[in-house]
């Protein structure tokens, strides 16, 4: 009887030990907060990798000491942006940021001082979107309370009949919610020629913008920098020209590039035919 009781106790102890060992190797299921955090940091890393040159800075990089990346706090969703009427009714031009919703873009809206306010977070996400929309050719119809693609660039109009959210105004970075904004922002970045990728450094550094530190980088700041860079490209290369004039300028540039390419090829070919004395090594 005593032996049977001992065997039963030993069996129970073995089962408890096995349960504890098995549980130690398993992780608890992720909470919704952790899932949101993982999605945010995944997107944060992608935005970091795709950001324009000149938008990031690291003070310790100059001194040679290693930089430890400190992830930013989780963003707080901006609920008013979930309203479908927010793009046409949300407040704009209430601060020092120069902007009006109706009409074409104005020179003062594209000033360096105004664009720096985008980077310094001194305007709303809606104001950034609105300025880019106007420069792309979307026009606000005050009577219908809607944006129309009246003067929009043809290729962009074909892809986006309605102006897309280039910032992610709701600040919810789950794939289901944020994917359209991310894709639209990437399309905007691809439309900037290589020669204009450094516009932030060229134009806005004298006005106080030194780039973002890695520790403070967020998708919102990265996209603001990309929108500001596109606006500089628009101001310097596209502003004030019709689509037909821009096409003619592009044609003339292609012809000039082709003439220069042929000239370089001819110079290179002439150089190959010229006799050169052998090089004598002197030790």
Could you please describe the fold and organization of this structure?
53% of the residues lie in helices and 4% in strands. It has helices at 2-24, 32-50, 59-63, 86-89, 112-119, 125-136, 154-159, 175-190, 199-204, 219-238, 243-273, and strands at 56-57, 139-141, 146-148, 212-213. Strands 1-4 form a two-stranded parallel ribbon. The protein has a two-stranded antiparallel sheet with strand order 2-3. Mean pLDDT is 78; it is low at 1-9, 18-34, 43-54, 58-65 and 279-283.
- Number-wise, the strands total 4
Which architecture per CATH? Orthogonal Bundle
Major beta sheet summary: 2 strands, parallel
Strand coverage percent: under 5%
When the domains are counted, the total is: 1
Adjacency order of strands in the biggest sheet: 1-4
Q: pLDDT under 50 segments (min length 5)?
A: 1-9, 18-34, 43-54, 58-65, 279-283
Tell the overall outline.
Answer: globular
The CATH homologous superfamily is called Protein of unknown function DUF1823
Report the CATH C-level class.
Answer: Mainly Alpha
Would you list the SSEs in sequence order as H and E?
HHEHHHHEEHHHEHH
The CATH topology corresponds to Actin-binding Protein, T-fimbrin, domain 1
Please specify the SSE layout and strand pairing.
Blueprint lengths: L1 H23 L7 H19 L5 E2 L1 H5 L22 H4 L22 H8 L5 H12 L2 E3 L4 E3 L5 H6 L15 H16 L8 H6 L7 E2 L5 H20 L4 H31 L10
Parallel strand pairs: 1-4
Antiparallel strand pairs: 2-3
Helix pairs in contact: 5-10, 6-10
Fill in the keyword field for this structure.
283 residues, disordered C terminus, Actin-binding Protein, T-fimbrin, domain 1, mainly alpha
């Amino acid at each position: 009887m005593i032996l049977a009781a001992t065997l039963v106790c030993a069996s129970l102890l073995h089962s408890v030990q096995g349960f504890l060992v098995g549980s130690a190797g398993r992780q608890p299921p992720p909470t919704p907060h952790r899932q949101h955090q993982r999605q945010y940091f995944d997107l944060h890393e992608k935005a970091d990798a795709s950001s324009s040159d000149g938008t990031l800075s690291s003070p310790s990089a100059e001194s040679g000491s290693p930089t430890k990346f400190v992830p930013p706090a989780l963003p707080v969703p901006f609920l008013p942006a979930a309203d479908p009427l927010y793009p046409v009714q949300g407040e704009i031009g209430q601060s020092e940021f120069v902007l009006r919703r109706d009409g074409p873009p104005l020179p003062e809206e594209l000033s360096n001082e105004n664009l720096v306010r985008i980077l310094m977070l001194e305007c709303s996400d809606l104001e950034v979107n609105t300025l880019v929309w106007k420069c792309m050719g979307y026009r606000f119809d005050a009577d219908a309370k809607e944006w129309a693609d009246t003067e929009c660039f043809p290729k962009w109009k074909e892809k986006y009949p309605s102006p897309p959210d280039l910032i992610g105004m709701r600040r919810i970075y789950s794939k289901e919610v944020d994917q359209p904004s991310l894709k639209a922002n990437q399309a905007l970045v691809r439309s900037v020629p290589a020669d204009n990728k450094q516009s932030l450094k060229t134009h806005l550094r004298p006005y106080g913008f030194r780039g973002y530190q890695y520790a403070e980088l967020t998708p919102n700041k990265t996209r603001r920098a990309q929108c500001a860079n596109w606006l500089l490209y628009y101001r310097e290369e596209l502003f004030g020209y019709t689509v037909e004039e821009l096409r003619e300028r592009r044609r003339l540039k292609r012809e000039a590039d082709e003439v220069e390419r042929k000239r370089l090829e001819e110079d290179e070919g002439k150089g190959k035919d010229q006799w050169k004395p052998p090089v004598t090594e002197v030790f």
